TrEMBL record:
GO BP: arginine metabolic process; urea cycle
Any one cellular-component term (Gene Ontology): cytoplasm
Record's keyword terms, sorted: Arginine metabolism, Hydrolase, Manganese, Metal-binding
Protein family (similarity comment): Belongs to the arginase family.
Enzyme class: hydrolase
Pfam families, alphabetized: Arginase
Cofactor: binding details: Binds 2 manganese ions per subunit.
Manganese found in the keyword field: yes
Protein name, per record: Arginase
Binding annotation for Mn(2+): H98, D125, H127, D129, D229, D231
GO molecular function: arginase activity; manganese ion binding
Amino acid sequence: MTKIVLLGAPIEAGTGRRGCVMGPDAYRTAGLVEELRALGHEVTDMGDAEPEDARDAKTEFTHLKELEVVAGWTRALHADAKRLGRGDALPIYLGGDHALSAGTVTGHAAAAAEQDRPFFVLWLDAHADFNTFATTTSGNLHGTPLAFACGLPGFDAYLNGPVPVPVNPENVCILGLRSVDGDERRLLQDSAVTAHDMRAIDELGIVPLLRAFLDRVRAAKGVLHVSLDVDFIEPDIAPAVGTTVPGGATFREAHHVMELLHDSGLVTSLDLVELNPFLDVKGRTARLMVDLTASLFGRRILDRATRSY
């Protein structure tokens, strides 16, 4: 039995389009609490977080969209994650767009540093989200959280100063890449981040790539934050995302990743991001994300009831 806390983060300011604000309630409606409790876990839903006032968030870059709103969410979620990271329950952050991870990842990194434990991040995503304010061409800030968390410069507006505890890029693994901007690619290649695109998964298989990373986390006695973006998955089976990129993880690949993560016993916090219920088909994507979360928390193949779609 695991103690789990849910915290909604209904942020859509990072995406440039409407709909992700409905994400947290879609997870609840799809039965996330009930599924986790059916697996024997103790689940507390803390409701939704509230952003801070960040009207002081300023930068020289005028093309950034909703900077003050994203900064307000970053500050609030950083504080929430740091507090929850000190506790004995495993937090699941219900998004909301991927900009929320600027707060959750940095907050958990700070909590891990207080405990003198190495902090690792598994980023399951079609995108690297490794842009800076200078390199993002769209100005949509959901493409920046991992660069911010890894301590790249220029992000002082988010927390009104540098990130307190940058994540060591050597402790980051991105799995499922298939869309990276040009300048972002150069930043990523210059970093020590492990980045596996879909070609690597096609050629080598998703299991050895993930196991190699988990072995590193285990050897370091580290804590592991997982950030799961809907667009990690093939959009034909997970359409409720505003940044669809064909060629994503299959249904079984996605579940296998979650099952391996459960078997590892290493996951200490989780983001579920970029669910846009406005784009869903009869709740199919929300239900799939709930099922994937259930796999992460111990549901086995033999436990799955037959379901007609």
